[in-house]
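Subject: for your reference before the review

Hello V.,

The reviewers asked for a structural picture of the protein, and I figured it would be easier to keep everything in one thread rather than splitting it across files. Below is the amino acid sequence we used in the manuscript, unchanged from the supplementary table.
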Amino acid sequence: MKTSNFGKVYFAGAGPGNPELLTIKAVRILAKAEVVITDRLVSEEIIKEFVNPEAIIIPVGKQGGSNASTPQTEINELIVQFAASYKTVVRLKGGDISLYSNVLDELITVKEHNIEYEIVPGITALSGASAYAGVPLTARGYATGVRIMTYYQDSAISKDAWKHLASFEDTLVFYMTGNALPQLVSNLLKAGADMAIPFLVIEQATTPYQHVHQFDLGTFNSQLHQEFASPSLIIMGRVTALYQQFAWLPNNKERNQYFKPLQDYPELISLINNTQHLSHVSRA
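And here is what came back from the structure prediction:
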């Protein structure tokens, strides 16, 4: 086992959930991987069908509000330590590698250690969710562009920015915002948004448990607010009115979890600083 030189790390996007949306390049890399360090929002089918059967699988997921989330510093350490012992390490992330994936911290880490790396893009959650809901994000006459954001507190968006967002010239897409949706709607209305603007909350997009909820800004807060299954993506704007016309995938009403919650994964503490004793690590 190597102790001095580093192997190569591939930062790869696994797509939004459906295994068939994995790229050909990602499939080839996973087939030769010796170690796969994988996020929670990666389909188990991808791990079982496309990953080298001899590979070590390390789940290092994150989940809002869960104490089982793996700290980023530990993930960084794992990448370095496995790269020191194996030639091919894959850091597998849901969706695309560059959107809300904390890849910057990991890129800084491999650069600091002079570890060779490659970035392999994946289909974004945004692309998957909109396509599987039949919503063309920049449909002519409906939107001039797309704004991709997350919202968790008012200070994240300035007052002037709220006014621009509320004009809905662009389609607005919010990652990781389900819990803050009532406040998001309220702020848009306060900024002058048209109450008739429709929006969608798409749960577990592209998976067998995809479920699309339809609302409009004016009536949302008068409806009983509910918790949405993770992951959920919010698409707001005039284009979402096209959902009724072009939706091609029926909603799954069972509301089951496609991605395992973090508490189902093994503890990772013993793996930090102990990469030579990995026989107890099981496949997802």
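For the response letter, the relevant points are probably these. The chain has a mean pLDDT of 88. The first strand starts at residue 8 and ends at 13.

Happy to draft the paragraph if you're swamped.

O.
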